[in-house]
Each structure stands twice: as C-alpha cells, then as structure tokens.
Amino acid sequence: MDSEHLTDEEELDIKQKFIDADSIIKTTTLKSLSMVQNKYYSTLIDVQEIAKSLEGITSISKGSLTIEIPSEY
C-alpha cells in the first residue's frame, strides 16, 4: 500500500497504531526491567554444610531462632 493512496483516516489509523505500539513497548520494557531487578539466580547449595552449621543452634525463643555460625565462615 503506497502512502500516496492512503486516505486521511487510514493514515491517522496507522499513526495511532504506532503510538499505541510505542506505549506498549515502553510499559513492557519497564515491567521487564523491574522483574530482572527482583530476580533470584540459582546457585549450587551444599546441604551438608548447611546441616553442619545448623548443629550449632544454641537457643530457640518464641518467634525467633538464633544460630551460631562457626568462626571459620
């Protein structure tokens, strides 16, 4: 479709579609950026080391937990 043969209404419709698309892209980009900032990345977890650390629990009080971590960490 040549732009020379477009009616004013068709031209305005196309412009509006570009404006709408730009708005959607900006909104989507902002959402994507905020989601990336809150994203957690997986890492290998040494469960045996965690279990050893938990053996050093000294006290449990109502609503809280105190864990002593050996000084080697």
Query: Distance between termini?
Result: 69 Å
The whole-angstrom Rg is: 29 Å
Which structural category do the helix and sheet elements fall into?
alpha+beta
Series of secondary-structure elements, N-terminal to C-terminal = HHEE
Low-confidence stretches: none
Largest sheet: 2 strands, antiparallel
| Total count of strands | 2
Helical content (DSSP H or I, runs of 4+): 40-55%
Strand content: 5-15%
Mean pLDDT: 71
Given the C-alpha coordinates, what overall shape results?
Answer: rod-shaped
Number of helices: 2
Overall domain count:
1
Structure report:
A hairpin with a 2-residue loop joins strand 1 (57-61) and strand 2 (64-67). This protein has helices spanning 8-37, 47-54, and strands at 57-61, 64-67. The mean pLDDT is 71. The chain has one domain. It contains two helices and two strands. The chain is α+β, with helices and mostly antiparallel strands and 73 residues long. This is 23337_t:CDS:1.
Features:
73 residues; alpha+beta; two-stranded antiparallel ribbon; 2 helices; 2 strands; 12% strand; rod-shaped
Break the fold down into its secondary structure elements and pairings.
Blueprint: H1 8-37, H2 47-54, E1 57-61, E2 64-67
Antiparallel strand pairs: 1-2
Protein name: 23337_t:CDS:1
